[in-house]
Amino acid sequence: MEIWQSLPLDCLISVFSLLQEEDLIRASTVCKDWCYAVQTPWLWRRMCLQRWSFCNVSQHLSHTGTHSWKAYYLRRSHLEMKMKSGRSCADYTCKTLRGHEGRVVGLAYLSGNDGRSDVWSSSPVVCSASTDGTVKAWDIHKGVSVWSSPVQSPMQDITVDPGQCVAVTSDSSGTIKAWKGSSGEELACFTSGFSKTTLLSFRHKDSSFLMVGTVAGSLLVLTCPALCEVSRHVVCDSFRLNLLLSSPDNKWIFTASKENFNSSPKVFYSESVCCPAEDEDSVCGSLPVSGCLAAVFLPSQPARLAVIQSDGLFTNKTLAVFDLALKESKYKKEPQAQQVACFAVELSQRSDVVLEARGHSTLLVADGNHLKVYTFKGDLVASFQDHLQPIAALCVDSFRVVTASRDLSLRVLTWRSDPEHGLTLESQYHLLGGSLTRSRGFTSVACDYSSIVASVESLDGKDVLKAYTFDF
């Protein structure tokens, strides 16, 4: 021990860089010199960046008056440990958010913890829209409504623009409205003329836009929050445009109708619809598939798109993966979709399919009460049947996957690295939503870094939200 105690500080730090959290903490109790060496910010910064890639320690610990990488690592890893174990009362609190008098048609985080901002001091705010004609904002930590809009026609859809702190809703009268997230003040109104619309908040360069899919198969592009029309495009005439997606780099917009098995999805180059040039058509192209059931962009491969397709008889189901690119010539711009993978998937005929993705090569397919994990090449990595009834929604991030089911439970699974298959999932625990004698189960779910919010379809027609908060 005397030899180790006589080592210079640089040598101790070099040795300690080989240790993990538990060993470092033990080493800090040996003597004063070791304790001093263990406090070296470089050691803990290195572990933070290895585990989370990006860390903003100045924001995380600004309210404490200190900026310690050690404190950051210990507090964030402690939070993840609670999210992984999920013991009721000890690891999380559950609040029921009541106030809607109708069905909840959608919910979204207006502000939340992304693991990069101040995880411990900020309180997430979630917005929800209902057939009772109101949109509400909820403080998740306090479990109370922050504001509620005046009663409108029954709501159809909701989306949010967190960057501008704006919520946007559409109702059955065809009215689209933008709401100030901090107060619920109405900012703008647009009359679409369509009783059913699908909304997508979208960012192009430094401006915000709203994509609107109509029941007539057209795509409207509006500014946000002013809601002024920028452009209009026909995608699938006479069929509802109910699937809108934007690529992670915001260069592509995917559009499709899940009601027409004969139509092909279209991809638009966002520049051409958000900033249209006079006397020039939009830059769009059809994918070489039809019968779109679900689609997703892969988060770490911005131009990679996965689509589940089926024929009208639901006998042939395939998952095709495309890499999108823009072909430019002197007089024309044209999208190109190169198919990089295609494989058959077994799906039931009675349930909706949910498709999500992680990273650049991992796909998750929820069908009935099954959850399957594939590589984008078609290798089945994992399969789960944790629920008794169909999975209604998925929430996926870099740490975990949450499945929301009609059996009134949420299943939490966490990612892990497998030596043979690479990235895979590990099933952890259930979060229960109440009694099935009073409800028909969960219908949607959303997550941020430290909380989970899901909507419950109540038998009396007055849906509620369940908010699960993991505290450090």
Please supply descriptive tags for the structure shown above.
32 strands; 472 residues; single chain; four-stranded antiparallel beta sheet; 8 helices; mainly beta
**Poorly predicted parts:** 62-66
Our count of helices gives 8
| Helix proportion range | 10-25%
Record the strand order, biggest sheet.
1-32-31-30
Approximately what portion of the residues adopt beta-strand conformation?
over 45%
The 3D shape can be described as globular
What can be said about the biggest beta sheet? 4 strands, antiparallel
**Which structural category do the helix and sheet elements fall into?**
mainly beta
Mean pLDDT: 86
Give the radius of gyration: 24 Å
Beta-strand segment tally: 32
**N- to C-terminal distance:** 36 Å
Description:
- The chain is mainly beta and 472 residues long.
- It is 14% helix and 46% strand.
- It has 8 helices and 32 strands.
- Strand 31 and strand 32 form a beta hairpin.
